[in-house]
């Protein structure tokens, strides 16, 4: 992966790596360091497809660039395999925070599925505690370097499994110990959020915030279910919401669009879209529009006033960073520093934090961008 500080805003020469950022969609098991995978695998006698960190990073990137979410998800068999002990979970979480901070992130929500980390004999509560210990240690490391970062866990249930309510109860049980929200993830097509309606009903009674993976491998029906059954405050990816946009006509300067009912609802209620440009290309989420970043409906959604946010999804699989994603978008769509600030302010407004804390994030972002 490139050093995030190597990216500069074209024309201005601004170091994008130093800008304050908010990360809302970043998977713990998709953000491991290749060297850590090698070392943890060696400790448990697990075979890996490469002998050195550089080669392993290349393997992850190649395997993930298939155009299929199902194939993309298979790479997680390796990362989750080395995250089955308290020590492994804590180490990965600690390094995750260190890497976020190195990328300029001041607040990051870390999503992961505890039910996938029980093979070593730990309980659901124990794995959540292990990850939180690592997150806290990472924040202490960052603080010792004279910087600060805050994180929150997004506890995720696997949408193809039947543990939704159990995982929802787990999330609420840890709401005062680092957990800030709930999510469902995994193979989206064929597994509507309505499958976990009981869990979402419970979370609503607990006033517990929800984001739902929807609009990535499946379309408007999945998004509709996320909004109705899941009461989603944010959409994980949500890129296929663009299927509900009807382009009436175009001229040299403008595109005239009619919003369908789902898109209208999402825009009017400022439900954040957790867009992940590189990942969306890799998984084929934007295949209806093309296979290059210029084809991504990100800019159309932005110009129409949707609350778009920029995310990495899985830094290891996509060989990326939040800084890199911003640089790619700027290069392709000609975004200015002001645009990049809007994306961070959108993310801060959508964070699963009390409003006073969100206001503090906004202040940090505005100060950081004004000094750039």
From TrEMBL:
Q: Which cofactor does it need?
A: Zn(2+)
The EC designation for this entry is 3.5.4.4
One GO molecular function term?
metal ion binding
Gene Ontology biological-process annotations: adenosine catabolic process; hypoxanthine salvage; inosine biosynthetic process; nucleotide metabolic process
Q: Which Pfam families match?
A: A_deaminase (PF00962)
Q: Which InterPro entries match?
A: A_deaminase_dom, Ado/ade_deaminase, Metal_Hydrolase
Q: Which UniProt keywords apply?
A: Hydrolase, Metal-binding, Nucleotide metabolism, Zinc
Report the residue ranges that make up the Adenosine deaminase domain in this protein.
20-366
One GO cellular component, as annotated? cytosol
Report if keyword Zinc is assigned. yes
Which family does the UniProt entry place this protein in? Belongs to the metallo-dependent hydrolases superfamily. Adenosine and AMP deaminases family.
- What is the protein's name according to its record? adenosine deaminase
